[in-house]
Structure of Isoprenyl transferase:
Amino acid sequence: MTTPDKVARHVAIIMDGNGRWAKRRHLPRAMGHRKGVDAVRELVRSLKDTPVECLTLYAFSSENWKRPEEEVDDLMNLMRKFIKSDLPEFIANDVRLHILGDWRALAPDIVAMLEDAIAQTAKGTRTLAVALNYGAHAEIVHAARKAAAEGEIDEQAIERHLFSAELPPLDLLIRTSGEVRLSNFLLWQAAYAEMLFLDVLWPDFTPDHLKQALAEFAERERRFGGR
Ligand code: FPP
């Protein structure tokens, strides 16, 4: 069976290469992350010109806590600033915020900001899903435990309890920076997703790269295990 629908409704991105972007310019890593946020902002703005209904971004993995404290603080501060500065734009542009991961374990002020942003954007028609303190293994364990508590564990029961339960099926997974691995991101959801590994560092990623990726997606033949 091939899919008649060549439109990617749900795109996920592993935003990699902020550190290398900064290093090449002899700048502190924090500058790479700052530019990375600018790239996020431009991409979210461009969504209205694409058929993408949901964009999921890997912003902070549960393994990222192993980075130096200063870098973790930088990333958390960027998150605070980003929500504060861009929330009015999300509301104006009908962007709904969704968070995946164990995000309620983040600093209480960030949790409160995110809860407020989720509530204020609830009516949005396009979704920006941000993975924060996220790991796919932990997500699957969490879903399996919930399913077990309800009764039988089958695929539908697990899917109902994934953090992505209310999102469209994942169509396209992009990783920037030339690395070719999934790094514990959306392992369940990626089962039939198309994958694209781009040689672009995240701060250099533009809305045009997304449009090219969508064009490439449209050329691919998806079989979902059939022929
Ligand atoms: C990978 O680059 C990137 C991250 C670990 C964080 C991604 C975060 C952002 C783009 C900013 C925050 C996001 C939002 C939504 C506000 P790296 O540091 O691993 O780069 P390197 O592999 O070149 O060192």
Remarks:
- The pocket of farnesyl diphosphate is lined by residues 15-20, 33, 36-37, 40, 57, 59, 64, 75, 78-79, 82, 130, 177, 202 (CB under 6 Å).
- The mean pLDDT is 96.
